[in-house]
């Protein structure tokens, strides 16, 4: 089983992958993601992706939305590791040009990332990111 130290290295690579995608490059996440059929990605731009083909297409589409990104930081809420799974809950903060905008904007995402050991290394098996980083009104969950 990969160790906690190994997990810390992968979390750091995961953080570096965020900087890369904020600059329009999905390769960092591509390198860390599981290729398993049950792997999933739920980002703020669309429905969840399942399986490597959908995940790769979703990473490419997300990277195309961002440009000129710079890291602002990570606020860790939790990190848990068991022999079978590990996860982090973090607030990711960066600046980027978003959707072709000429100006950089502050972006903050609430992110849960689940890792599992595969072939002796920790791999991302699930990532969920959404823009909810502050309390919301109850009506915010009602479909429009």
Would you give an account of this structure?
The protein has one domain (4-130): Nuclear Transport Factor 2, Chain: A (Roll), CATH 3.10.450. The protein has 144 residues and is an alpha+beta fold. A 6-stranded mixed sheet has the order 2-1-6-5-4-3. It has helices at residues 4-22, 27-32, 52-65; strands spanning 40-42, 49-50, 66-81, 86-98, 104-118, 121-130. Helices cover 27% and strands 41% of the residues.
Order of helices and strands: HHEEHEEEE
Q: What percent strand?
A: 35-45%
Task: Point out poorly predicted stretches.
Answer: none
Largest sheet: 6 strands, mixed
Percentage of helical residues? 25-40%
CATH class: Alpha Beta
The domain count comes to 1
Q: What is the typical, i.e. mean, pLDDT?
A: 95
Radius of gyration: 15 Å
Q: What's the overall geometry?
A: globular
Overall strand count? 6
CATH architecture: Roll
User: Total number of helical segments?
Assistant: 3
CATH topology: Nuclear Transport Factor 2, Chain: A
Spatial strand arrangement across the major sheet:
2-1-6-5-4-3
Class by SSE composition: alpha+beta
Oligomer status: single chain
Give the N-to-C terminal Cα separation.
Answer: 46 Å
């Amino acid at each position: 089983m990969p160790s906690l130290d190994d997990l810390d290295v992968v979390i750091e690579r995961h953080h570096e992958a965020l900087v890369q995608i904020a600059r329009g490059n999905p390769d960092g996440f591509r390198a860390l993601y599981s290729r398993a059929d049950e792997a999933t990605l739920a980002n703020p731009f669309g429905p969840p992706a399942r399986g490597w083909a959908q995940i790769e297409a979703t990473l490419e589409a997300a990277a195309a939305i961002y440009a000129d990104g710079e890291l602002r930081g990570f606020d860790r809420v939790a990190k848990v590791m068991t022999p079978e799974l590990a996860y982090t809950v973090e607030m990711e903060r960066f600046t980027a040009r978003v959707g072709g905008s000429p100006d950089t904007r502050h972006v903050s995402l609430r992110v849960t990332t689940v890792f599992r050991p595969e072939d002796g290394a920790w791999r991302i098996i699930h990532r969920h990111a959404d823009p909810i980083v502050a309390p919301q009104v109850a009506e915010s969950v009602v479909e429009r």
